[in-house]
Amino acid sequence: MMLGDKRRNDFPILYQTVNDEPLVYLDNAATTQKPRQVLEAMSYYDEHDHANVHRGVHTLGARATEAYEAARENVRQFIHAHSTKEVLFTRGTTTSLNWVAQSYGDVAVEAGDDILLSYAEHHANLVPWQQLAKRKQANLVYIDLDEEGRLDMTDFQTKLSSKTKIVALAHVTNVLGTIQPIKEIARLTHEVGGVIVVDGAQSVPHMAVDVQDLDVDFYAFSGHKMYGPTGIGVLYGKEKWLEQMSPVEFGGEMIEFVHLYNSTWADLPWKFEAGTPNMTGAIGLSAAIDYLTTIGMTTIMQHEQALMADVLPRLQAIEGVTVFGPTSPSEHAGVIAFNIDGIHPHDVATAMDMQGVAVRAGHHCAQPLMKWLDVQATNRASLGLYTTQADLNQFIQAVIATKEFFQNGTI
Ligand SMILES: Cc1ncc(COP(=O)(O)O)c(CN[C@@H]2CONC2=O)c1O
């Protein structure tokens, strides 16, 4: 039995019909669904242990604090960070990346410095750097993509220089699903004295991530992309950088002492966590990590690669369908962008929804990439650990039926 069939009954939401057809949920790159184990862990916390953290001297406060900090330790182990001081809870990837651009960027980047990005970045890993470049009169330098949408490493090394202060890249891109060689990029970036900021939103759900092995300086991801709740994410940062960085938000929790006209800050990681944190979200994220760890990231990656090896060639073989990104299935980490020639992606997605199949349509917060692809928008199917062969069979049938419907009016 494949993983998807084995684990599907952990996800109550998947057992519904849409337009009288079994739901086939293939929008996991937007957000994943939560297993009962995550839902139950959050409910248990709220029903038994909820209180505000780090301040109460009463029993519930102690239990809530213990649960919250145990969640942080669980994240540390999951990404193999050296210390919990390096694991900051945020609202999600977008907040994490903004914190780096504002706090690290403002102290490290000066006029004339280079910030290297790729055309394939999500807006969350592009717009914060645009704002930093404007604030500091720094240069945004875009690394070319090759003909199949991979990062052009030759162009990267050409543009990398002693002026490079920051390299900001996705580990896995959210439209093409390309896996960027982060470990090599980190090594090359450090050789010129730069730091590497990695957008891990689309990689953490699909593969094991070891931030020490990758030797990245910052790594950002979201709970809701990895079978956890929304509203909780993580910023990993090397302790040496976080110690130098000023807080981005100010108030309770993050202070050591508040005088009338100045204040001192709490130690890491709390220096960056102003106000009451999302305890339930952190506990839900920790339960998601336990769930993924029980299955094993290698097992998940193998499952999704097997499905991709089946579905990508079948989609590529449909006449009148354009599939974007690398030709090889092994270079797609769970994501396929495609169009049916001559049919607007929104019409395709609507027609597929009529057949119970949920795919994304639009620019996917990657408008520079749409320009590079020379399209306004694409459709996107994205797999999860619960995706089954039956899901993909229904997906392929829906693409074919949608094409025929728009060509001759029958579905
Ligand atoms: C590569 C990447 N980076 C950052 C983000 C932002 O994450 P948060 O919204 O959790 O801060 C996303 C979200 N993915 C978008 C959301 O919907 N569809 C997508 O592809 C993403 O895919």
Secondary structure blueprint with pairings:
Blueprint (H helix, E strand, L loop, with lengths): L2 H5 L9 E2 L2 E2 L1 E2 L10 H14 L9 H21 L7 E4 L2 H16 L5 E5 L8 H10 L2 E5 L9 H7 L4 E7 L11 H10 L3 E5 L11 H4 L3 E5 L10 E5 L1 H6 L10 E4 L4 E3 L13 H17 L1 H20 L4 E4 L10 E6 L4 H9 L3 E2 L1 E3 L4 H7 L4 E5 L6 H20 L3
Parallel strand pairs: 3-15, 5-6, 5-7, 7-8, 8-9
Antiparallel strand pairs: 1-2, 4-10, 9-10, 11-12, 13-14, 14-17, 16-17
Helix pairs in contact: 2-10, 3-10, 4-5, 11-14
Bound molecules: ligand DCS.
Keywords: Aminotransferase, Pyridoxal phosphate, Transferase
EC number: 2.8.1.7
GO molecular function: cysteine desulfurase activity; pyridoxal phosphate binding; transaminase activity
Key phrases:
single chain, Aspartate Aminotransferase, domain 1, Aspartate Aminotransferase, domain 2, 4-stranded antiparallel sheet, 17 strands, 40% helix, binds the ligand Cc1ncc(COP(=O)(O)O)c(CN[C@@H]2CONC2=O)c1O
Mean pLDDT: 97
Q: How many distinct folded domains?
A: 2
Which strands sit side by side, in order, in the main sheet? 4-10-9-8-7-5-6
Q: Which ligands appear in the coordinates? A: ligand DCS
Unreliable stretches covering 5 or more consecutive residues: none
Number of strands: 17
- Gross CATH architecture of the largest domain: 3-Layer(aba) Sandwich
What global shape is seen? globular
Short description:
With 411 residues, the chain is of the alpha/beta class. The chain has helices spanning 3-7, 36-49, 59-79, 93-108, 127-136, 153-159, 182-191, 211-214, 239-244, 279-295, 297-316, 345-353, 367-373, 389-408, and strands at residues 17-18, 21-22, 24-25, 87-90, 114-118, 139-143, 164-170, 195-199, 218-222, 233-237, 255-258, 263-265, 321-324, 335-340, 357-358, 360-362, 378-382. The protein has 14 helices and 17 strands.
